[in-house]
Structure formats: structure tokens, C-alpha cells
Write a structure and sequence with these properties.
Elements lengths: L5 H5 L22 E2 L2 E2 L4 H33 L8 H7 L5 H21 L15 H24 L8 H14 L17 H18 L8 H27 L30
Antiparallel strand pairs: 1-2
Length: 277
């Protein structure tokens, strides 16, 4: 009203807060604050709770990725690999590129099957931040692709030196970096991964995990997406590795006599049955 005095208007304005800013307390009372304490959680308290939640979730995710990375390292030496002589017997009359095409097609089909059947995957004891089905899928696809990479090295005349474990770690490194093994540096094949390589392995698994999240969607939508994405990713890895191996390829007739590859005593259960040979 025109006759209202300034003092009357001020009665309905919120009291100034710290720094002169208007208070957010509801008008008309101070019942929310008694004995110098505020019943509502402070901004600092809310921030602290969020920070603790993020830290807890991050720790769980890191533990899940670490579990899968350790599992990949564990199973790599147990993946059966067909040597060049065996591959040439199974694909008679074909050259290196033709056999490599056959290997990529078979591996892509296997990884697509794993993606489509993720809901039926074996349960693994992983932290809650990484669903067991997803962990099982990533591990199985890694096993399929590591086997593919190992056999591509045979086809292109680039078998790494060393024992089963040493070659297995070389193939894990190849899978992580998506490139061929440098067989001119045998000192690197010591059967263990460096701290840097383990970090890169976890990063590769993280990328695969993020891309595989749609696989958990129900009603078969996730199965279709999972099959498509796994097939695409396997072909993508194979393309990069093959491109690198071609630059260092050794013709079959120029290869020295190589002994047959050792057969692992027990193939990893994550590897599909048709690839355990």
C-alpha cells in the first residue's frame, strides 16, 4: 500500500545472512534454528557425504577392474594356440591373409555369441561396482581375442620367444596396446607385466566395460547390441594387430624350423568350448 512505512515493509524481508546476502530461512520465524544449531544439513556436510560416496564407488570400480585384469593375466598362458603347421593343415591351400581372415571371422562370431549370452554367463566373485555377468563377458572376450592375436602372430611368422607364460604375457600386452609383439626385443618377455602395462590393461578393460554396459539391458535388446558391439570390437582389434604384423611379416618359406607349441594342461573355462583346441 502507498501508506506503508519502510519499517513495516522490512518486517517481511528475510534477515540478512552472512556477508549481507538474504537468508534462505522461511519468513516469519527462527524455529528452524535453536540453541545455535541448524536442523538442516549444512552445505559442507552434504558435500562431504557426496565425496565419501564417490570415493567408495570409485574404489569398488577399481577393485572390479583389478579383478578382471588379474584374471586375464592368469588365464593368458592357459589359452591353447594353434601353431602355423596346425593352421596350414586345417586351412589347406590358403595363404597368410586368407587364413588370417578365417581366424578373424571365427573369433568375431565367438565374441558375438558371448555378447548375446551375457545373461547366462558364469557368476564371478567380483566387487558390486562391476556386475558379475559383465566381468564374465569381458574376461571371455579377452580370452577369445588373445587366442586370435596369438594365432595371427603364427600366421605372420612372428611367434614371440620364451615359455608359455612369457608368450602369454606378450599376447596380453599385444591385446592391451592393439599392436603386434616386437619379437626383436626378447628381453621384454620375462613372464610378468610392468606396473605401467598393468595400468594400461585396466584402462583397456575399462573401455570394454563401458562399451559393454548396453549388454545388460533386458528383453533381448541388450543381447542384440552385445553381439553387434563385440563382433565389431574384435574385428577392430584384429585389424590393428594385423596392420602392425604385416610390416614385420616373415614369409613362410623363410621361417626357421619352429617346434610345435606346448598345449596347456587345462584351458580356461572362460574360453568357449569350440576354441579349446
Amino acid at each position: 500500500m502507498a501508506g506503508d512505512s519502510p519499517s513495516r515493509k522490512r518486517r517481511f524481508l528475510p534477515a540478512p545472512g552472512p556477508g549481507g546476502a538474504p537468508s534462505q530461512d522461511p519468513p516469519g520465524g527462527t524455529d528452524a534454528a535453536q540453541d545455535g544449531t541448524d536442523r538442516l544439513p549444512s552445505t559442507k556436510g552434504r558435500f562431504e557425504r557426496v565425496r565419501r560416496g564417490v570415493r567408495k564407488g570409485g574404489s569398488g570400480a577399481a577393485a572390479g577392474l583389478g579383478f578382471v585384469a588379474d584374471r586375464v593375466i592368469e588365464i593368458a598362458p592357459r589359452i591353447p594356440v594353434r601353431d602355423l603347421a596346425t593352421l596350414r593343415e586345417q586351412f589347406p591351400g590358403l595363404g597368410p591373409e586368407e587364413i588370417a581372415d578365417k581366424l578373424v571371422t571365427g573369433a568375431a562370431a565367438s565374441s558375438a555369441t558371448v555378447g548375446a549370452g551375457v545373461g547366462a554367463a558364469a557368476m564371478l566373485p567380483v566387487p558390486p561396482a562391476l556386475p558379475a555377468e559383465l566381468a564374465a563377458e569381458i574376461t571371455a572376450v579377452a580370452a577369445i581375442e588373445i587366442k586370435l592375436i596369438a594365432e595371427l602372430h603364427e600366421v605372420y611368422g612372428q611367434r614371440p620367444p620364451g615359455s608359455l607364460r612369457q608368450r602369454g604375457m606378450a599376447y596380453v600386452q599385444s591385446w592391451t596396446e592393439e599392436r603386434g609383439v616386437d619379437v626383436t626385443k626378447p628381453a621384454t618377455f620375462n613372464g610378468a607385466l610392468s606396473g605401467r602395462m598393468k595400468r594400461e590393461l585396466r584402462q583397456q578393460i575399462m573401455k570394454r566395460t563401458v562399451r559393454s554396459l548396453p549388454n545388460l539391458v533386458p528383453f533381448m535388446i541388450g543381447a542384440a547390441v552385445g553381439a553387434m558391439m563385440n563382433r565389431r570390437d574384435t574385428k577392430h582389434v584384429a585389424e590393428h594387430v594385423r596392420e602392425d604384423l604385416r610390416r614385420k611379416q616373415v614369409a613362410w618359406d623363410a621361417l626357421p624350423a619352429l617346434p610345435p607349441l606346448e598345449r596347456p594342461a587345462q584351458p580356461p573355462p572362460e574360453l568357449p568350448g569350440d576354441l579349446r583346441h
